[in-house]
User: Which sequence fits this backbone?
């Protein structure tokens, strides 16, 4: 074996940590996302054909087709899909990430994040807030109406606002939010307020109508997930910078499409996914819902854990410890467990409660397989039926098998 | 009629305490007649079979968890098997909100960076791997696990020696480091006696006897039962002796082992001697060359070893002078030229165990036979009264001619540092041997002043030669006089004690003087015991690498770098 895995991992991790994701712009998907086409619908997770898609993902695709205006009804959309008139692909193949269904279509406004250290770009759609939303597969008229408002009014305002600035430093924003009780995945309350603080003076400059301005600020401020999508895009920019390092066993993607869980590894192929059926998250449910209602794990938001925050930074988010067992100590233990399978500790993301120790960063395939500890992912839980929305939040771990498969493939590729 | 049901779980490793608790839990369920919960190793399967708890149709690998329930009816058995998870989980739930328990050694080191010891009691086939990792992390190892191959043991110990680390074991049951017992150890008083033990229970016995006698233990270092085999060469025992020799709190050292091979015993005794400290040796069942050799004292039993150590510790002031003395002839050879056969034999018996290479024309062991009685090699004892020399010649007690010529021959050998003679007086012997020997001794001392000439003189003042007159002449010529073999050997032993070999990286005494902090991998009871003794400890929730999947584990081993 001629490769030096530790050296390759060091290179990958340094690229991940030194990446400097800056929120540069909001733009229309077809104008900025590589190889974006009018009949292409990007979705969360690894590629999947229509027949195997879960309820929320199908619903979101129908909704996006209605939003794009290429279909007028659910029936028409379904029939177009079945005739092969639209194409699907993984967001990840286009530098893009999206929470839950993650469906992104050509006309949608997206955040543009640039890693100014290495030059790669990443994209994510705008967050719709709570309730009936496209990302959980809802596509009723009010859902579509809100999407249009977001695209035309909010998106335009954000685009104009960001054009007034040199961009917002998302690495600094995440670091600060972690000191304010966020872990960056299930809790983005502090980060969203920081985002609001940074963006509102710019919005005030570019939006002339006070009522509209008020509406926009209200919308951003009410949504404690406003910053989730830019944060995910930042994590994507960081992990993409770490991808493709020859000989590295660092996991650079963890993503779920609602049917399968997939990972990619830095030292393996660009489109080489290791997959297994997604598991159903275990967690706490909103009243009226139970484990029975939960859809298998879905969304690209596990990119946060891949980059070393989210479930990995649980120790710093005592407010949401109910997801992990109930006590702050459980939250600390959750983070300590993730140090067991990571290659490094973050230089930039630190946790006061652990004496400002860096977050566990860079999942090392070898350690996962050796110790049998899979990554902890904090996640929202979608209803299994399209359009019902979020039914709870909790914890999920990817199946161990995909890491074992990846290890074997790695050994084959490098003749180990 | 009873019903037996079972459940095999591949690659599910639990430590035996958990399994016992589960087994007890299953036995407490209604309708359950008997239950067995084991990792399905051959030994455990045999045990189940002996209890009629191993139906023929069970197939399971050593890494599989095997749950067998015998119940009075089918439904009770099924129900009990179904409860296994609940019972396992019940135990787990009590650990929620406890301190985080790492699964890897490196994780544990991050949690307790000051830990300088790693206790390993995982199944033997995994133990060497864990020990290797501990050494990579620069930790000393207490290796309780058995079934570690001798090749692994040698490799681990060599690595440890290079790094200045100690590997106690494999199969090391007992150690006491800085007042904290590791593995199976007794709570004994702290004191000035150090123990190096190749046998766990031997160490336990000696340390408790010493405690009962009112003395105490500085450190007790285990070596594992195979350390003194010639393949391993007592690597750990040598390191342990060196540590205890340098430890100022240790005044007396007890060395306990089953009899080692001659070669290993010799090297170890040489090292023991080199420490300059008082050493009590109990090679159980080994017949010692004498009661004592310089600083070495031989005990015939564990309790005698404890008794000797205790009294030596009390009187150790007497022996202090020898501790750091390095003689200029330490690296030279000894040549003994004897007229008395029994005196030669007694001397040979003691020195052959102490000096190497050693030869004699009347050896104890054939391998030490002098090729040519006329020519000395290495350290040599020659009995000039042997019949080889007697052909056409008077006995050397009467005729000094042969001995004088041999004396000059030895003195011409630049490798020789000490010449040992006996002079036996009495009726029939030479009327004034000193008058012939003294001038030659004088001549030798003139030519090579560094050579020591030691003479054992046997006789009385009423003998025709007069003991005092003989001694006076010899002393005037520069010889050192002793009345017995014992006393002469004691002197010789101290002159030839050598400085510890410097090729090994010395073990830092910090690991012995700092409060003990340890990482425990394996039996949880060892962790509990450390904590209850007030030591800082972290327990690793160890599992076989890759869940016991050998293919993946071997891939991982190749991907470590």
Assistant:
């Amino acid at each position: 074996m001629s490769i030096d895995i530790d050296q390759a991992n060091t290179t990958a991790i340094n690229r991940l940590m030194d990446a400097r994701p800056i929120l540069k712009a909001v733009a229309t998907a077809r104008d900025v996302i590589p190889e974006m086409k009018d009949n292409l619908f990007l979705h969360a997770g690894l590629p999947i054909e229509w027949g195997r898609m879960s309820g929320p993902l199908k619903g979101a695709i129908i909704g996006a087709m209605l939003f794009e205006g290429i279909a007028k009804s659910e029936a028409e959309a379904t029939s177009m899909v079945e005739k092969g008139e639209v194409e699907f692909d993984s967001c990840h193949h286009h530098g893009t990430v999206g929470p839950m269904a993650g469906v992104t279509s050509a006309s949608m406004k997206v955040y543009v994040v640039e890693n100014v250290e290495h030059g790669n770009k990443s994209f994510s759609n705008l967050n719709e807030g709570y309730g009936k939303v496209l990302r959980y597969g809802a596509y009723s008229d009010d859902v579509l109406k809100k999407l249009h408002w977001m695209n035309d009014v909010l998106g335009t305002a954000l685009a104009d606002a960001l054009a007034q600035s040199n961009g917002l430093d998302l690495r600094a924003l995440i670091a600060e939010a972690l000191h304010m009780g966020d872990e960056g995945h299930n809790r983005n309350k502090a980060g969203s307020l920081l985002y609001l603080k940074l963006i509102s003076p710019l919005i005030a400059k570019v939006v002339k109508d006070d009522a509209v301005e008020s509406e926009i600020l209200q919308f951003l401020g009410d949504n404690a997930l406003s910053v989730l999508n830019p944060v995910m895009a930042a994590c994507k920019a960081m992990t993409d910078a770490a991808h493709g390092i020859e000989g590295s066993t660092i996991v650079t993607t963890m993503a779920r499409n609602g049917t399968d869980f997939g990972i990619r590894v830095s030292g393996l192929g660009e489109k080489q996914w290791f997959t297994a059926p997604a598991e159903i998250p275990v967690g706490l449910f909103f009243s009226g819902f139970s484990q029975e209602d939960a859809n298998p794990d879905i969304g690209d938001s596990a990119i946060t854990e891949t980059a070393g925050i989210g479930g990995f930074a649980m120790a710093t988010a005592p407010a949401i410890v109910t997801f992990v067992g109930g006590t702050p100590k459980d939250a600390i233990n959750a983070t300590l467990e993730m140090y067991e399978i990571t290659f490094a500790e973050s230089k930039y993301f630190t946790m006061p409660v652990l004496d400002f120790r860096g977050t566990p960063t860079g999942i090392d395939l070898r350690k996962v397989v050796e110790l049998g500890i899979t990554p902890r992912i904090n996640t929202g839980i979608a209803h299994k039926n399209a359009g019902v929305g979020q039914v709870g939040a909790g914890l999920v771990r990817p199946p161990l098998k995909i890491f074992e498969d990846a290890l074997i493939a790695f050994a084959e590729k490098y003749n180990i | 009629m009873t019903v037996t049901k079972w459940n095999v779980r591949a690659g599910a490793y639990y430590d035996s305490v958990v399994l016992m608790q589960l087994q007890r839990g299953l036995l407490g369920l209604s309708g359950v007649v008997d239950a067995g919960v084991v990792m399905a190793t051959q030994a455990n399967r045999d045990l189940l079979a002996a209890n009629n708890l191993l139906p023929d149709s069970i197939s399971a690998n050593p890494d599989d968890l095997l749950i067998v329930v015998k119940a009075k009816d089918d439904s009770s058995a099924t129900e009990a098997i179904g409860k296994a998870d609940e019972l396992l989980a019940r135990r787990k739930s009590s650990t929620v909100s406890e301190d985080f328990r790492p699964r890897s050694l490196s994780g544990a080191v991050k949690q307790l960076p000051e830990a300088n010891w790693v206790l390993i009691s995982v199944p033997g086939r995994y133990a060497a791997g864990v020990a290797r990792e501990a050494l990579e992390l620069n930790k000393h190892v207490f290796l309780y696990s058995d079934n570690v191959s001798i090749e692994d043991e040698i490799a681990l110990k060599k690595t440890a020696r290079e790094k200045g680390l100690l590997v106690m074991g494999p199969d090391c049951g007992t150690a006491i480091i800085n007042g904290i017992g590791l593995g199976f150890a007794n709570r004994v008083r702290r004191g000035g006696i150090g123990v190096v033990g190749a046998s766990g229970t031997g160490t336990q016995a000696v340390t408790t006897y010493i405690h009962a006698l009112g003395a105490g233990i500085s450190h007790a270092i285990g070596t594992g039962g195979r350390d003194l085999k010639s393949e391993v060469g007592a690597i750990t025992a040598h390191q342990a002796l060196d540590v205890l020799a340098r430890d100022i709190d240790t005044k007396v050292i007890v060395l306990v082992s089953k009899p080692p091979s001659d070669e290993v015993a010799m090297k170890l005794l040489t090292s023991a001697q080199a420490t300059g400290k008082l050493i009590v040796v109990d090679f159980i069942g080994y017949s010692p060359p004498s009661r004592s050799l310089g600083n070495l004292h031989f005990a015939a039993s564990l309790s005698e070893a404890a008794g000797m150590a205790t009294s030596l510790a009390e009187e150790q002031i007497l022996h202090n002078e020898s501790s750091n003395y390095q003689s200029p002839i330490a690296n030279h050879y000894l040549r003994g030229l004897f007229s008395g056969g029994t005196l030669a034999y007694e001397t040979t018996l003691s020195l052959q165990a102490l000096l190497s290479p050693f030869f004699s024309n009347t050896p104890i062991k054939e391998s030490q036979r002098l090729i040519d009685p006329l020519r000395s090699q290495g350290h040599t004892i020659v009995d000039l009264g042997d019949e080889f020399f007697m052909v056409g010649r008077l006995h050397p007690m009467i005729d000094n001619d042969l001995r004088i010529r041999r004396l000059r021959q030895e003195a011409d050998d630049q490798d020789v540092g000490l010449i040992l003679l006996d002079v036996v007086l009495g009726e029939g012997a030479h009327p004034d041997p000193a008058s012939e020997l003294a001038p030659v001794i004088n001549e030798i001392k003139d030519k090579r002043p560094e050579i020591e000439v030691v003479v054992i003189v046997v006789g009385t003042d009423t003998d025709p030669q007069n003991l005092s007159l003989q001694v006076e002449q010899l002393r005037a010529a520069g010889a050192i006089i002793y009345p017995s073999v014992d006393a002469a050997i004691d002197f010789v032993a101290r002159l030839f004690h050598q400085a510890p070999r410097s090729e090994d990286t010395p073990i830092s005494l910090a690991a012995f003087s700092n409060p003990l902090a340890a990482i425990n991998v394996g039996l949880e009871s060892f962790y509990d015991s450390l904590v209850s003794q007030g030591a800082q400890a972290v327990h690793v929730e160890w599992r076989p690498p890759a869940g016991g999947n050998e293919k993946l584990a071997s891939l991982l081993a190749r991907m470590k770098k």
The mean pLDDT of chain A is 95.
